[in-house]
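Entry 12.
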Amino acid sequence: MPPPLLVLQDVHLSFGGPPLLDGAELSVGEGERLALVGRNGSGKSTLLRIAAGLIEPDRGTRAVAQGTTIRYLPQEPDLSGFATTLAFAEAGMPAAGDHHRARLLLDALGLTGAEDPARLSGGEARRAALARVLAAAPDVLLLDEPTNHLDLPAIEWLEAELGSMRSAVVVISHDRRFLQTQSRATVWLDRGITRRLEQGFGAFEEWRDRTLEEEERDRHKLERKIAAELDWVRYGVTARRKRNQGRIRALQALRTERREQRRAVGDVRMTLTEGEQSGRLVIEATGIAKAFGDRVIVRDVSLKVRRGDRLGIIGPNGAGKTTLLSLLTGGTPPDAGTVRLGANLQMVTLDQRRESLDPATTLKDALTGGRGDTVFAGGQPRHFAGYMRDFLFAPEQARTPVGALSGGERGRLMLARALAVPSNLLVLDEPTNDLDLETLDLLQEMLADYPGTVLLVSHDRDFLDRVATSVLAAEGGGRWSEYPGGYSDMVAQRGVGVVVLPVARAARPKAEIAVDPGARKRRLAFADRRALETLPARIGALEAAIAGRQALLADAGLYARDRAAFDAAMSGLAADQAALAAAEEDWLRLEMLREELEG
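Predicted 3D structure (tokens):
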């Protein structure tokens, strides 16, 4: 077995308080795919920066195999000092690298290379940074939340691109589906130490829960042993004048062990403050339309949202999801058509940019509105300190300015504020940004039990599958179609996921045009070439999955014995067959195009 490319051993780091890293370790072998998981604030990003060589730990070693190249994608890329996105992407290339690859990656990610970095949105900056780290084709890729601010087509493109690379990958992400597709081993950072599971993220949560249960049993045994030793000290030597000092020292050692144990961080506790019941009809849109100049965002959309619906709105960046959300909730008037809101609506909105948070406001004032020490949650008065603890904030953070909080902490604060307001209509625009997996779990459970109505914009496929009762998908040209079920159900019905919509782009800089335009027309686009390479494997996998489901359904007694398994196999078979038909059609179309262009 070849030696690992990158090793961290016995890493310790503290920022003045309890240790953030307390003996953490990481080993990355050639071609490995690792998911690095843990609670917000557990030190995942810090460990990744140590692995990248950007931070020196207080103690521990970092070893990199000779000749190994490493590239790191931070959560917040810094493009300052570069004139264009192309200059930024090319700056990450090795001296002998293929600079044309940087241009191709920018193009595949929807950038021209001519953009001014100072004017980029968060999503555009993330795309440029992805092009930079991928273009170098390094031996080790360290990716910190690579899907943040990316739309669904970009996320699925990134999955395919990483799947075609030979690089070892260590990834931090809150996107469950992305972690499942990209990991073959999982490293869990918890209370300063790391544990490794030689399986992908799909097996992690069950393993984590089992590990925590074993810890709790061990802790309970220790408590009982301490109680027994205390009983002996108090009552077991009353007839003696000299106590057994060795046993007393053992008791002191047990107490020290208990005191030094670091318990797992508690779970977030969410209580939703329900408002009065709304009318049966919550929103009725009839023939609504909206355009900005020549760009049509919504064209002749009619829709009814009833009490208890959980409507997911999905589409690529630029499709107009947030505009459509504003139209449906009365925030923006349509150019044509009507929107009628139901009776007795109490709406609460969670915006994706956390814009309603004043960075100078303290955490306490953000929760209480600057009015005393009381928060009303679930219809009951709560002391702000207790409510803070429900969302994993420490008491000493009460006076912390909002601007000093991490992205995950700001996300939890926004949830805490939103959930304390009585509502029967929740409007959530990218609520999963910066939330850890455990908080996402609880948010999903809370939404499942919420008796009101939910409008949801999200790029998180797993979250949509767990929460949405139907999805409204952008079809292009301002057209939107509703599909019952979650994201996977939409793909099964539609035969394809979210696709990139054609948009006008700025002209490329003249310096980039290094080949004859006629020759460029005779070549497939980078994304099409990538699809041609990966589609045969996908077709084979789908054929194998279909054969497996058909074999399962061939069991005549399955329906009577396990109705749930039968239903799952039937729905899965339909979804796989639709996906296979779409994949075969895509491959045939691209193969014919390739033959035409090359012949």
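Annotation: The domain at 515-598 is CATH 1.10.287.380 (Helix Hairpins). The two ends are 46 Å apart (CA to CA).
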